[in-house]
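To whoever is on call:

I kicked off a structure prediction for a single chain this morning and the downstream step that reads the tokens threw a length-mismatch warning. I double-checked the sequence; it's 234 residues and nothing unusual in it as far as I can see. Pasting both halves so you can look.
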Amino acid sequence: MLTIKDLSVSYGAIHAIHNVSMEVKDGEIVSLIGANGAGKTTILHTITGLKKANSGSILYDGTDLQKMDPSKIIQLKMAHVPEGRHIFPDMTVVENLEMGAFIIKNKDEIKQKEKEIFERFPRLKERRKQLAGTLSGGEQQMLAVGRALMSSPKMLLMDEPSMGLSPLLVKDIFNIIKEVHKQGITVLLVEQNANMALAISDRAYVLETGNITITGNARELLNDERVKKAYLGQ
């Protein structure tokens, strides 16, 4: 579904990503784990066209994303839940959801998607007319996920969805990811909480200072001594 080959990305003189190759197959949850500053977010931004690569290729269902604008990439049924949520704080919950559906022209379809989101996130339904900036951190994360799902994506890119949340809310967010996946959505998950990420993933890649250093079956990586020492606090 998504194939990245020999990807290199720089910020001026700083070489952030070094010849990274990775793959996400249709129907998988794939995790990209690593320390803060390893380059995980840069990879997601390059996939969605927010950052241009120096070299390499990114193919999504056979389409070369490097040649497309971000506004066109979202029309390929790929949605991005950004780090830090980036909801629109001065807009209501409903208005935020509608922003996620801007590529859908049929108003009845938008209303149906909105209904589905509220069924999945009852707390958002209770706060549907509330300004998004007044929501709790967990509710804002739910809204960010809901907004992405409004476009009916085939693939969801998630950047640090558990960041800044209490342990109980972290568990809720990972349950949401599993539920989304059960509905047939492929997930590429960037996450510092390696333990939780590996527990729900099919495969995983470990990124260190812009390089993929370890890759494999997620359950096997949970027992990999290198991963346990560096990322699992063991």
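Update from on-call: the warning came from a stale cache, not from the record. Cleared it. Sanity check on the structure: The radius of gyration is 17 Å.
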